[in-house]
Structure formats: structure tokens, C-alpha cells
Amino acid sequence: MGVLYDHPGPPDVLRLAEVPDPVCAPDGVLIRIEAIAIEGGDLIQRASMPMSHPGYVLGYAAAGEIIAVGSAVTDRHVGQKVTSFDMGGSHAELRAVAASRTWPIPGGLDMAAARAYSKPNKFVWFRCEWS
Question: Any idea where the Alcohol dehydrogenase-like N-terminal domain is (predicted)?
Fold first, then answer.
């Protein structure tokens, strides 16, 4: 299941529907989503930005448990709790994302708090990656 839309518009363009399970790439992980963040980017995207295809799954930030790891990934493991940030796909039961777009959740931090944990890490990642 996922929250998706076929064209930009008001909130009623969103729908809950079955979506295919995403495929874990060699450099990626597959996450069972436990918590999401709904943020300004989601709202702007839904309201005014065309998506890459009809049935686009909304959402940037989410936290959950890794259930599969790509063959090229060495620093993540099945069962690990992570937060993730990427373009689209977080508002679904499963999310495939590059392992480099995930951050391990510190012990003791619950999923509701962890879903926001990716945002500061994202900015650090962008700064390090592109400087």
C-alpha cells in the first residue's frame, strides 16, 4: 500500500492504493516503513509539481527496518533500524533507497522521533558530497 497521486492538485488527489514492491538495487536497501514525516516539500509537490509517472508514491523522509540489503552494500544489515531521505517513495509500506541515503537510528530513539532524524543528516550529506 502507498499514498500516491496521478496529477498535482488539492489534497483530494491523494489516494491509498496497492503498489508493487520496490526492488532493492545492488547499492541499496529495502526498508519496511514504520514512521513517515509529512513536510512542506510533500505538500508543495502534491499541489503543484508534475511527477515522473502516474501513481507516483509521495514522500521524502521515513524511518523503518531494513529487510533486504543490496550485494554491494557493506555498512548496513537486515534488521537494522534506519532513517532515510530521498525523492519520493516514503509514504508506502516498503521503500527501496540507496544505502547512502540512510542513517542508522541511535539506540533508544523511537520511530516517531527518528523519522525527523534524516533531515539534519541529509544536509550534512549534501554538504560533504558536493563540497
Answer: 26-106
